[in-house]
Design goal:
With about 350 residues, this protein is of the alpha+beta class. Helix content is about 25%, strand content about 25%. Strands 6, 7, 8, 11, 12 and 13 form a 6-stranded antiparallel beta sheet that branches. It has a 4-stranded mixed beta sheet with strand order 1-2-5-3, with helices on one face. A 3-stranded antiparallel beta sheet has the order 14-16-15.
Length: about 350
């Protein structure tokens, strides 16, 4: 394993900004992962594990430690009872893995087609889209436990999946390095069509669409919102959805709705399984004065998606953070809701 010095991180992220890593290593085996960890520990360096760079904002000053790119690949499949078990290396491209599962006629991931990044990044944030979350199909996550230096398997309940969260980004953040993820999918299962965009796309269709048709539709919808990576399209030069959709109680929603009514606005709502209410962050952003296409110097809001902060060319991380702060402050001022960012911030003070 080669460890390189002073490596630019901007090209390794979808936002295409930020400074260099003091050291960068690429690990294709568990032994190499351990060697990289030992290197960082031996020099007292902070360690950051990098996947596809699709959910990351790197500080302009870069990162003073070791950035470890996980390149463990390979997909194995088998049948267990009525489930199709797929185990994928953390370095596998996520969309390619979803395409493979769909090609095998296995349901459970089709609505998450087109999401950039790697398999290993998906359990950390409990990635989801169009009504599906990976936590619904993950059977286990194989990790390197940095406390014991042992490889372990965490079963689904141990991962404590919730909306855009897990033990990997909350209570045990920084303790584990994801090596592989095991999914339990439904062979011959029906596609999951609950989101309005998908229902609209297939309106008038006689019968259910195939998994492949749903995957294609999701990719087309994501493309229309600049949420599919297309080289040369500045609206795709983002970290994806920058803010989480707030999940509030009925009482909190009523208070929010009352504030909005005073401005002659009606707040959209979606009831989640917990009985709480999910409010679209995109609606809050737009109603607070940050519409699609908003520009502030070299940064702005995507012309196609109000939740994507984009690098219009030559932007700095400081500009992105300043726009983030302005959006959060205005939404809180107008609606009393504090938006929580989705991306990871690397190299910033206190990260």
């Amino acid at each position: 394993m080669k460890i390189r010095e002073h490596i630019p991180l901007a090209p390794l992220t979808t936002l295409k900004l930020g400074g260099p890593a003091r050291y960068l290593a690429e690990a294709a085996t568990v032994e190499e992962v351990r060697a990289a960890v030992d290197f960082a520990r031996g020099r007292g360096l902070p360690l950051f594990v990098l996947g596809g760079g699709s959910n990351l904002v790197v500080a302009d000053g870069g990162f003073p430690g070791l950035v470890l790119r996980i390149c463990l690949t390979g997909v194995e499949a088998r049948q267990e009872g009525d489930k199709a078990i797929f185990e994928a290396g953390a370095g596998e491209d996520w969309d390619a893995f979803v395409a493979h599962a769909v090609s095998q006629g296995c349901a459970g991931l089709e609505c998450m087609s087109g999401i950039p990044g790697t398999v290993g990044g998906t359990p950390i944030q409990n990635v989801g889209a169009y009504g599906q979350e990976v936590g619904e199909t993950i059977d286990a996550v194989r990790v390197l436990d940095l406390e014991s230096n042992q490889v372990q398997e965490l079963c689904n309940p141990a991962c404590e999946f919730a909306y855009r969260s897990s033990v990997f980004n909350t209570s045990r953040r920084g303790r584990y390095i994801v090596l592989a993820v095991r999914f339990a999918l439904e062979p011959g299962g029906t596609p999951h069509i609950v989101y309005a965009d998908l229902k609209k796309h297939f309106a008038g269709l006689d019968g259910l669409p195939s998994l492949a048709e749903v995957r294609l539709a999701v990719r087309q919808i994501r493309l229309s919102k600049a949420m599919l990576i297309v080289e040369g399209d500045e609206d795709c030069r983002s970290a994806g959805s920058f803010f989480k959709n707030p999940v509030v109680s009925e009482e909190q929603y009523r208070a929010l709705a009352e504030v909005a009514a005073g401005r002659s606005l009606s707040v959209p709502r979606f009831t989640v399984p917990s009985g709480q209410v999910k409010v679209p962050a995109a609606w809050l952003v737009e109603q607070s004065g940050f519409p699609k296409g908003y520009a502030r110097g070299s940064v702005g809001i995507s012309r196609k998606h109000a939740l994507a902060i984009v690098n219009r060319g030559g932007a700095s991380a400081a500009e992105v953070v300043a726009l983030k702060d302005a959006i959060q402050a205005r939404v809180e001022e107008m609606f009393g809701v504090r938006l929580v960012p989705e991306p990871v911030f690397l190299g910033f003070e206190g990260d």
